[in-house]
Structure formats: C-alpha cells, structure tokens
Write a structure and sequence with these properties.
By secondary structure, this protein is α+β, with helices and mostly antiparallel strands. Helix content is 17%, strand content 34%. It is built from 17 helices and 51 strands. The strands form 9 sheets. Strands 13, 14, 16, 17, 20, 21, 22, 23, 24 and 25 form a 10-stranded antiparallel sheet that branches. Strands 28, 29, 31, 32, 35, 36, 37, 38, 39 and 40 form a 10-stranded antiparallel sheet that branches. Strands 2, 3, 4, 5, 6, 7, 8, 9 and 10 form a 9-stranded antiparallel sheet that branches. A hairpin with a 2-residue loop joins strand 9 and strand 10. Helix 9 crosses helix 10 and helix 14 packs across helix 17. The longest helix is centred in the first third of the chain and has 35 residues.
C-alpha cells in the first residue's frame, strides 16, 4: 500500500547521506569498545546502546525479475530484496570477547537461573545463539481480504529490505568463515556476516511471500541466504554487578520522556568553583565526587524514578584569562588496577567505570589509562569569567553515581593559558561543594603532552578554577537548589618565631622628646589597584630619616574565606636570597588573625570589582598587634608578609628593587609575591620537600604607618574648625574616537550599519564601566566617569590610510565611532583617553552585532617604562612641585621631538602623559668647579641665590628618574614605542636639558649652607645635565 511505497522511497532517498554518518558512528563505537573493555559502564550495561548496522548492496533481486511483491520496481543501482517477513538470522555472543561472563561457565553459575532465561528470552549468555524472526505490521490488525494467509486468519505486513547474503558487500568485519551452528538444522550451514567485540551476526532467510502463524509456515516463498538490512541494538549485561530488576528499571527509566538536550528525566544545574587565580600552566588533575549518599533508603518510594540519583556532567567552563583561542582536551580516569607497565588491566570486574586521579600507577600514561571526553578549541573570555567549552567538542557525558569519584585531567595544548590557584589545603581535600558535587584539591602539570616516563613535573596543592554543567536525575530534582558552600579552610599554625624584644615602644622617640623634639605620625601608601595576588609578599624599605614603623594595612579581597592568619617578618638588609631561610628573619612584627569586615564588598550582589576606599580598609592590622620596628636614617630593611588565605593582593612590577613609592621620610621598593603558606616550610625536591614559589617583580599593595621626629610647633594648634565648606568638583569632558573597517552584505543600508556599530560599542563600554575592565571601572567609581554619547559615522578611507578589500559580494565601510564622556577633574582628559584606548584592539571580538566582520584600524594605546638619568642635581629627590614641573617638561619635549621622528608620513603619534614612578640617587664625582681656576668658579653662580660655589663644597648627585610614558598611535607602520622614546631623549638630550633649565618653575624651600641655617630658593635643575635614557 501507500505506507510501503513511502517507506521504500524514504529509505532510498536517505540511504547515501546516512551511510557516511553511520560509518563514523561505527568507528566511534569500535573505538569505545576497545577503550572500554567491551562497553561496560558503571551499572554493568551501556546506557546508550551500541548500534550494530548491517547493510549491503547487490544486483536487482525481486524473486522474478519483475515487480516485487509490494508492486513497486526499485532502482536498479541500489535494489534489495523486499519481503513480507524476514529472519534476522542467528545472533551469537562471541565467547572470546564477552565482557560479562567468563567462557565455559554454566548458565546459572553467574547469577541467572533457568527461570530467568525463560522469562527473559532476549538474554544471550556467552557462546549461545538466539534466532530472530522479524515482521512489521500496522499498529492495529485488521481484516484484509486480499491478504495472504490460510485458515481464515489474515495479516497485513510492511515490506522489509534485505540483501543477497552470497553477493553482499562485506563490512569491515566480514570474514568468509562458514560455521555450523546448533541453532540451524543439521544439514544447513549459515555464514558469519559481521561481528563486533561482543556478538556475531549471521545470514538468514527472507520470506518473499507469505508469513508465519504460530510457528507453522503457510504458503511461503523463501529467499535463502540473505542479509537483514537494519540495525541491532543491545546492552552488555553483567549479572554479577547489576540484578535483572535493576537493569530493567534503568532501561525503563532511560526510555521515559525527557528534555531535548538529554532525552531523559531530570533537571540541569551549574556549579562553579570561582574565577580566582594565582598561577597558571598547561593542565590540572583533580577529583569530582558525588555528594549523594549511595546508601540512602529510596526503595520505599512508590515512584521508581525517585531512586535514580546519578549526576551526568555534560559540559564545563575553564578559566582562560587571556583573550586567545586555546586548544584543550579533557580526560577522565578509568577504573581498574594497573599492570606492571602502568596500563590498566581488564576493567569488566569493576563496578565503577571511573576512578580517582590519585591512582599512582600509570597516572601520566594518558592514552592507556584515561578516557577522552572533550577536545577542541575554546575562546578565552578574559578576567573573572568562565570560558565555556563548545557543545560540539563534548564527546561523552560523564555519569557519576551516588558516592562515587571521577578523576579529571584538564589540559590546554599550545600555551600555558589554563588558570587556577594555590591553596593551603592538602591534596585530595574538598575545597568546594554545592551539595551535589564535591571538588577536591589536585595538582597541576607544567607541560603538554605528559611524557609518562616519570620525568613530568607537577605542582601541588592546587585548586581548579572552573565550572561544571550537569544533569541530575529525577531523584534529585525535588531537592532544594544547591547553595554554594564556603571554601573550606583549615587552621594552619605559623612557625614558632618569637618577636624581637622591645624595651620600650618609643625608646628613641622618648630620647628625642627629652631634647625638645616632637614625634610625628605619618604613613606611606603604595597602591591598591592590585591586579594579581597570592599568599604574601616581600619588599624592601629605606629609611630617609630616623623613624619607627608602627603599623601596616594590607589589601585583601576576601574571596576564599572570612578569617586569615597574618605573619609579618622583618630583617635588616634586602630580602633577596633570604626568602626561604627562617633564620634570616629574626623579627616577628605581626602574629595575629584578622577577619573580613562586616560591611565588606559582596561579590554576589556588588559585582566582581571592589572600590579603592573599601580595599584600603580591607585588612588593617591593629596598632596593638604590631611590634614597632626602629629604623635609622639610611638603613634598608625588608618585610615578609604571609597570609593563610590566597587573598593577599599585589600589583605587577617592572624591576626588583625599583622605587615605587617615596616621601621625605620613607621609600618602598618593588619586591616579590609569595605563592605558598606557611613560610619557610619548603625544601629541596631531591629531599622530598616542596620548592616554594615566588613571583617577581611585584608591588606591595598597602600602607605603612610610622612615627618620626620633627620640631615641636611653637603654638598649640587651634581648636576652631576652620575647614572650608566643600565646593563642587569641576567636571571635564573627554572625546575618544574608535575607527573600524566593517565588512557587511551589500543589502545593508549605511544608516543600519552606523546604528549597529553605535549600539555595539555603547554596550561594550557600559560593561567596562560596570566592572568588566579594571581601569575604566576604577575611574567610574573614583572619578565619576560616565559615557554621555556614542555616535557612529562613515568616514573617508584616507583617514585610515589604506583601503579595505572585502570578500565578494560583501561591502567594506570605514566607520568612526565618537565617544563623549564626562568625569570629575580628579582625572585628566589624557588619563581617561588612554584608559579607553587600552581596550581598542579587543573591541571587534566584544561587539555583539550579527552580520558583520569588524577590524579595528584606529588609534591604540602605547606605553613604555624608561629611565632618565640626570647628573649634577642636589643631594635630594625632587619634591612635589619639581616632580610636576619635570613631568610637564618631559611630556611636552617628547610630544614635539618623538612625534617629529620620521614615521613614513604618519603624524598620529601623541604623548599623553609622563609620570615619575621613582627616583634613585647615586654618588657622583665632586663638582667640576674643584678642578677649575677661580675665575671659572666665580662665573658658576646660582641664578636663584647668587651664592658662589666654593672649592671642595657643593658635591652633586645623580638621579635616576623612572618614568612611565603613555601615548596614542595609529599604525601603519608599527613602531617600537619604547625604543622611540629612548632614541628621542638620547638624540636631543641637550634640548631637554635646556628646557628644564630655561622654563620658569616654582621655588622650593631647601636648607641652606652649613652653619648658616637660612632657607634659600634653589632651582633643582640649574646645574643638571641629561645624561641619557634607556628603556
């Protein structure tokens, strides 16, 4: 009838396109069978049944050379036997490949009775045969006068397709073996047509006309030696692991309707371990355990689906902080015991399919002992967010039964872009849980691929930063949504170090007070802009006058806990070379526990970024818990700060020992970050210890409080509050232009293109100001930065400097997006412009508009750190007014000289700012006046004081001024900005020297000659020479 005709038509129409897909599936199935030891899963059966495909092609064969019994002539190039009924032939379990029962055992010896065999006829024990007869009928039997049959019974059947068993093209597994099987007659032989690791499939017969009723052949026309065309599905069943009742319940459960993503009952959840990172490399191994009690009594429930509490992991997110495309692979550890060579033995006797990564034997033999579940390329999304793995990269879901553990190996391949964090917890401890899954502390690996020969280097303990997408089965869906458990922190006792004895809190201060001097309280702050962090830091401080350190404030983000033990050690001299030697740190200034402030930033409600003022008060060490440290003028001391949480924040530096912050009393230098806690517990790896890790250069984030001595004021300070009423801060406006080449379809109207680009850029900038970008978010919080207007317009290609050649039939349009922002005058327009241009190159990947290919071709931020050497300067650092003067002169000089350098006609370079980050005074030969005659000396007068520099007096210093130079530039050509700045100063240093001397600058109060005690105005740059610059 029509149904048969349609079915045949559909089959022939889709056969070829399906064949490629089926072949790929067969290859995956064969690979799974080889890797899984016959396809057993943790429940003793395959949850997704193996599909064995049988299909062949032959010459036309329809029983008579004319129309087939269905009345339809099939195409001659792919015609198969059409029959009203067909035997599939014999199905025989392969006795040498059985994953469930050893060969030769009796049927009842592996947990099944004869009654089981009778009640479940489709169970095929090892080395036994099952014969099948297949017939397809309509859903409702109905009388058909024209139907075939006898005895008054009728049956309507659909036609089946089969192939000639003698002439059929063999599959990959075909052999020509002829076997005699007990399931056939004694005088009949059947051919083995195909097989896999578990079953053999034989040829059979096709009933071209007629059908079987009650096993009694009636009016049959039989075609012998044919191959059933279709697919046979089966499960591997191990009665030693799973009972028949459990098996059929699981089978019934798997057939229940579910969602489109998983096809089974249950609900989806997501669980993240946080996007905090302190370190990174290629890979990590760690365990994931089901937190569900496997012994919980669920058998009493009437709904059998409530007994299913497996967790099925179907996706992950990694932490790729760089904006790159990273190749990755994810494996899970197979269960089983390893042989002497490290490879797994037969796993069929193990109930669990997976095991912990901690199994030592064969841990780094990835191909032998691990199963690949995902592989592909992931797009790094940047800081403080996950990078989801593409759906098509996920090869196999990971089923975690209640109470069981799965070892994961997550690795990237090309660059060490995988981010994670240090921890004080021992390897294997649970550090994160959502009530359903527990994630344990693991270890990281410093290379890819792992060699597996014992030479692979790992680091532990480490915590995985990422997220899991999982499907919980029906028995868990009614439970309350999981709550993110706090990170588990074990108390770690600091090493036993006694604080330095202190006779008096202010012993030297008291002595100075007896001489009529008064103590002054002050502080020196570095920065609280952090950017990275770990368990502590080390840095040097230099006393520029006699003082006493009396307190310290730290920068803590409290991301992993609410309480932290803090240790602060001190030693006279630099820290470098002493970071691992406990005896080198005789002074313990702080040994206390601090706690998260009650009103501290809440990431879940306030977002990921913390305001600067809140950072300043995040970890204030009480003065009562700080043992004062006396420092004499000219002394260098080093501090070692240790915290029990990896929440101590610091900033990337540029050079160890470089001055980062200074004032007239104190100087703080760049140092290092400490990646381990507690301190001094490391050791040589050869002796079984753990080598501690330090990152350098790093900048301490915090504030040092201190007391020093100054003259007592003649009059007591007035008690009248003379503070003027606050005045509104002036607002500034800054404009930034982003320029793009936008490729789009020719049907797009220019108005639509400019609207889409305005909308896309505005959306990205809004995200930046709300926390997606550190510097802009800081300006929004501290300087009131607001985006006022975003307007896109088409511009001329001459503004860009080169043409765009689109891929036909696309069109390429040059688009400029002008952004206008407002902000308080606490930030300059140049600072704001530079902050916006820092992210310009990332805009094309962040703009979310469809139908466009976007290339950024406009101004970009350029920056370099340089050192400018001045000689012949006074024996002191520049004061605030002089610093501002120097920065302005240097910026204007570079803006004139560097921009005038030949850049192939490109005049887009502009110097936005020059900022002094540090000054280092060094000794220099005495002033050249000593070696000149009197007339020369007399002529060398100070333009400010009119004093004559006498022989043997006026020795000068050199000041190494460390500056950060920022600008903007639009290629082509590409330039080395650091080299350009260096060359500009070295080439025209006499011009810079002249401008420093000739311009009018504010006078600075400076102590006069010895014995005079007068105060004189002195120009810092009068006798200065610009020696040169280096990047």
């Amino acid at each position: 009838g029509r149904e048969t005709l349609l079915a045949s038509d559909l089959f022939l129409r889709s056969y070829r396109e399906e064949e490629d897909r089926r072949q790929r599936q067969r290859q995956r199935d064969r690979r799974d069978l080889r890797e899984e030891g016959g396809g057993m899963n943790n429940k003793g059966r395959r949850r997704r049944p193996l599909k064995v495909e049988v299909a062949g092609q032959s010459a036309p064969r329809d029983g008579g050379g004319g129309p087939s019994s269905s009345g339809r002539q099939l195409d001659g190039d792919n015609t198969e036997v059409i029959s009203e009924g067909s035997t599939i032939g014999e199905v025989h379990t392969a006795n040498d490949q059985s994953a469930s029962v050893p060969q030769g055992e009796a049927y009842g010896s592996y947990g099944l009775s004869d009654e089981d065999k009778e009640n479940h006829p489709l169970l095929i024990p090892p080395d036994e045969t099952l014969s099948l007869y297949v017939v397809i009928t309509p859903p409702v039997e109905e009388d058909d006068e024209g139907g075939s049959g006898s005895g008054g019974s009728t049956m309507t059947t659909f036609a089946l397709l089969s192939s000639d068993g003698d002439a059929a093209s063999p599959t990959e597994f075909v052999t020509s073996e002829q076997v005699s099987d007990g399931g056939a007659g004694d005088d009949e032989e059947v051919s083995l047509y195909t097989h896999d690791a578990s079953i053999d499939l034989y040829t059979g017969n096709s009933i071209v006309k007629g059908h079987l009723v009650d096993d009694d052949p009636t009016d049959l026309q039989v075609e012998e030696s044919t191959v059933f065309n279709g697919a046979l599905y089966y499960d591997l069943f191990n009665p030693r692991v799973t009972s028949l009742e459990e098996y059929y319940e699981e089978l019934a459960y798997s057939l229940l309707p579910g969602d489109s993503a998983h096809g089974m009952p249950g609900c989806d959840r997501e669980f993240g371990t946080g996007w905090l990172d302190t370190v990174g490399s290629y890979g990590m191994m760690f365990d994931v355990t089901s937190n569900i009690d496997p012994h919980a009594d669920a058998a009493s429930t009437e709904d059998f689906t409530k007994r299913f509490k497996d967790v099925e992991i179907y996706g992950m997110e990694l932490y790729i902080r760089s904006l790159v495309n990273a190749s990755f692979a994810i494996y899970v550890r197979r269960a089983g015991s390893a042989d002497d060579d490290g490879t797994l033995a037969d796993t069929s006797v193990y109930r669990s399919q997976y095991a912990s990564y901690t199994l030592p034997a064969g841990q780094t033999l990835i191909a032998e002992n691990w199963e690949l579940i995902a592989e592909g390329t992931v797009e790094g999304k940047g800081m403080l967010q996950g990078s989801p793995l593409p759906h098509d990269s996920w090869i196999k879901n990971v089923v975690v039964p209640p109470g069981e553990t799965v070892g994961f190996y997550v690795t990237v391949k090309d660059e060490p872009d995988l981010r994670y964090r240090n921890t004080t917890l021992p390897e294997g401890n649970i550090y994160k849980s959502d009530g359903v899954l527990n994630v344990g502390v693991g270890r990281s690996w410093g290379q890819y691929p792992l060699k597996g020969n014992g030479d692979d280097v790992y680091f532990s303990p480490r915590e995985f930063s990422g997220a899991f997408l999982y499907h919980v089965h029906e028995g868990l869906c009614d439970s309350a949504p999981p709550s993110s458990a706090s990170t588990i922190v074990e108390e770690t006792h600091p090493p036993s170090v006694s604080p330095a004895p202190s006779k008096s809190r202010y012993s030297y201060l008291q002595a100075m007070a007896d001489e009529g001097m008064c103590p002054e309280e002050s502080s020196l702050e570095t920065t609280f802009n952090d950017g990275t962090g770990s368990y502590g830091g080390l840095f040097d401080v230099l006393a520029k006058t006699d003082l006493a350190l009396t307190g310290i404030d730290l920068n803590m983000d409290w991301n992993t806990g609410d309480a932290a033990h803090v240790l602060v050690y001190a030693r006279k001299g630099s820290w470098f070379g002493h970071q691992n030697i406990a005896d080198s740190w005789p002074h313990l200034l702080v040994n206390t526990t601090i706690y998260r402030p009650l009103d501290f930033h809440n990431r879940s409600t306030d977002g990921p970024y913390i305001q600067i003022d809140m950072k300043r008060s995040s970890a204030v060490i009480p003065k009562s818990q700080f043992t004062p440290l006396s420092m004499k003028i000219g002394e260098t001391w080093s501090l070692y700060i240790c915290t029990s949480l990896a929440d101590f924040r610091y900033t990337l530096g540029t050079s160890i020992g470089k001055t980062y912050a200074a004032n007239p009393q104190l100087r703080i230098m760049e140092g290092a970050g400490a990646a381990d806690y507690p301190p001094f517990a490391g050791g040589n790896r050869e002796d079984g210890g753990v080598e501690y890790t330090f990152y350098a250069p790093r900048v301490f984030n915090g504030n040092l409080r201190y007391d020093y001595i100054s003259d007592c004021p003649s009059d007591a300070p007035s008690e009248v509050d003379s503070t003027p009423a606050p005045t509104p801060m002036a607002m500034l406006a800054t404009s930034v232009r982003y320029t793009f080449y936008v490729e789009h379809g020719p049907e797009k109207l220019m108005g639509a293109v400019t609207y889409d680009m305005s909308f896309g850029v505005k959306a990205v900038l809004d995200r930046f100001l709300k926390g997606d970008e550190d510097i802009l978010y800081g300006h929004a919080l501290n300087d009131g930065l607001v985006v006022e207007k975003v307007v896109a317009n088409m511009v001329s290609p001459t503004e860009i400097g080169y043409l765009c050649y689109p891929t036909p039939p696309e069109t390429c349009s040059p688009i400029a997006v002008d952004v206008t922002v407002s902000h308080r005058n606490t930030a300059t327009t140049d600072e704001i412009m530079f902050a916006f241009l820092r992210q310009s190159m990332h805009l094309p990947s962040l703009i979310n508009v469809e139908g466009y290919t976007i290339e950024y071709v406009g101004d970009r931020a350029v920056e370099t750190n340089s050192e400018i050497m001045l000689s012949g300067v006074p024996d002191r650092e520049m004061m605030d007014e002089e610093l501002e003067y120097f920065e302005n002169v240097a910026r204007e000089f570079l803006d004139n000289v560097a921009t005038a350098k030949d850049l192939s006609g490109n005049d887009s370079l502009r110097i936005l700012s020059v900022t002094v980050n540090g000054q280092v005074l060094t000794n220099e030969v005495p002033n050249a006046i000593e070696n000149e005659d009197e007339s020369t000396s007399v002529s060398a007068r100070s333009s400010l004081g009119g004093r004559i520099l006498q022989k043997g007096r006026g020795k000068k210093k050199s000041n190494s001024v460390q500056v950060a130079v920022r600008g903007k530039y639009r290629p082509p050509p590409e330039v080395d900005f650091g080299e350009l700045v260096e060359d500009s100063i070295n080439r025209d240093r006499e011009l810079l020297q002249k401008e420093l001397k000739d311009r009018e600058m504010p006078a600075v109060a400076q102590e006069g000659d010895e014995g005079t005690g007068d105060i004189t105005a002195m120009n810092y740059f009068n006798d200065a020479e610009v020696v040169g610059a280096r990047e």
